[in-house]
Amino acid sequence: MTQEELFKKLVAHCKEYGFIFPSSEIYDGLGAVYDYGQNGVELKNNIKRYWWDSMVKLHENIVGIDAAIFMHPKTWEASGHVGAFNDPLIDNKDSKKRYRADVLVEDWLAKQQEKIDKEVEKARKRFGEQFDESQYLATSPRVLEIKAKMDAVHTRFAEALNANNLEELKQIILDCEIVCPISGTRNWTDVRQFNLMFSTQMGSTADGANTIYLRPETAQGIFVNFLNVQKTGRMKLPFGIAQIGKAFRNEIVARQFIFRMREFEQMEMQFFVQPGTEMDWWKQWKETRMAWHRALGFGDENYRFHDHDKLAHYANAATDIEYNFPFGFKEVEGIHSRTDFDLGRHQEYSGKKLQYFDAERGESYVPYVVETSIGVDRMFLQIMSAAYNEEKLENGEERVVLNLPAALAPVKVAVLPLVKKDGMPEVARKIVDELKYDYNVVYDEKDSVGKRYRRQDAVGTPYCVTVDGQTLEDGTVTVRHRDTMQQERVAIADLRRMVDEGCSYAALFKKMKA
Fold first, then answer.
1. Distance of CA 363 to the CA centre of its chain
2. Beta strands of 261-311 (E only): which ranges?
3. How many CB atoms lie within 10 A of CB 281?
4. Which of 153, 159, 277, 467 is 20 to 30 A distant from 400 in Cα terms?
5. Four-CA torsion 95, 385, 249, 67, nearest 10 degrees
């Protein structure tokens, strides 16, 4: 099965099992907008809780807020979004399809790296245990040829982005002979910039209305509330402010399911520090955030850092944490050193001082900021991509299972009476009532137990509890574990302890510090 076929199956699975639906589907949907179903919203909320608790509960110097989506229009002038929040777009004249020019080049560079990886794997098979990868990379004519071409293009690409040289960006696309995936031609338009912000009107009449924007990021709500939080919370540097909220971008090239959407949710934390210490904190937050991802257990080799070729107008350092999706390594989180740009600009545009008085140094100054920013929807897709498995069992049967971390699973326990008689449903209902105040528990009595197991595997339920004849005799139930499919007899009185231990967020947090 190709990665593309796997991704299509994952998208279909999300709809079939109530994770994600196309928005307004009865009206043929709305491009790049999706709704979360009954299982999707539970998983999404659990992801947000994992992030929120790791930020706010585990750090004494980080607090949370919930800022409004609508903000004063000057906010976006000060932040630079009105003038600089653009994507470089290019059209193929034959297919009439539109693409991000920078993504086309990035995909080409990724393909060159794939060529190198294939050469390495072929050599590894040829030489066996004697294979020295570092020596091969340094001496193979084919690898050196690909690497030289790749490095030359990468240098041109970085220079073009930083200089905002759109003509050079197009020339790189032509020189690399990049074709449209649809038409297969290189008949490209010029590259042009497109602002991504949604605008709307606020006011009682059209003539008297003011143009405002749907926020393209949640960070600015934190910056304008910096002093409110610092003073009311008596916060001392360094400290952070966390927020989870919706953001909106008019993505022209929305693609890859929920990876890039027009309405999405962000989890951002802005960490305020003394000027001059920002790079140390940037490095520390890089490692902290990577540990958060790796604690989920999806394989350390599937994560990597990717430093930005072009820094945003506010940053002096930036890196992405990328995950190996079915469509390649892509960003799930960004860690940025934003300097004092945001607070400084809001101080300038508002005329209000946004400074911190440092009692130890006896002076006031505008703090520097280190940001961690992660998309909830991308994180959702990353987790689903990592957890989705098609397994062939020893008896020849197949099952689709979501190997989700138990703490994130939308349903923690499924309670199944073996038959719908002899008092088994009544006992099963009592077990549901015992657990439902703390966990999302479902009751299922339809079809054979085997089919019910398969349904729960497909939504990632870690524990299936079966009430049978023995239960009525000795008060024990059969607990079937999702990942191993092993079964054990457990006393009803011990179920809560088992679920508490298995589904605890604390277990994930401890892995972060391991």
1. 39
2. 263-273, 303-307
3. 21
4. 467
5. 180
Q: 81 is written with which tokens?
A: 């979004």
Contacts of 428 (CB under 8 A, 6+ apart): 415, 416, 417, 443, 445, 465, 467
Q: How far apart are CA 493 and CA 381, in angstroms?
A: 37
Which residues have CB under 8 Å from 64's CB, separation 6+?
52, 55, 56, 241, 242, 243, 244
- Report the chain's terminal Cα–Cα distance, integer Å: 36
Low-confidence ranges of the chain (pLDDT < 70): 1, 84, 204-209, 253-255, 514
Length of the chain: 514
Q: What is the mean pLDDT of the chain?
A: 92
Q: Enter the tokens of residue 19.
A: 């994770």
**β-strands 198-202, 356-358 pairing:** unpaired
Give the domains, in start order, of the chain with CATH numbers: 1-68+216-339+349-392 (3.30.930.10), 86-188 (3.30.40), 400-513 (3.40.50.800)
Q: Could you check whether the bond before residue 238 is cis, i.e. omega within 30 degrees of 0?
A: yes
Q: What is the pTM of this model?
A: 0.83
Using DSSP, state whether 414 is helix, strand or coil.
strand
Q: Give 267's DSSP letter.
A: E
- Strand-pairing partners, residue 463, are 413, 481
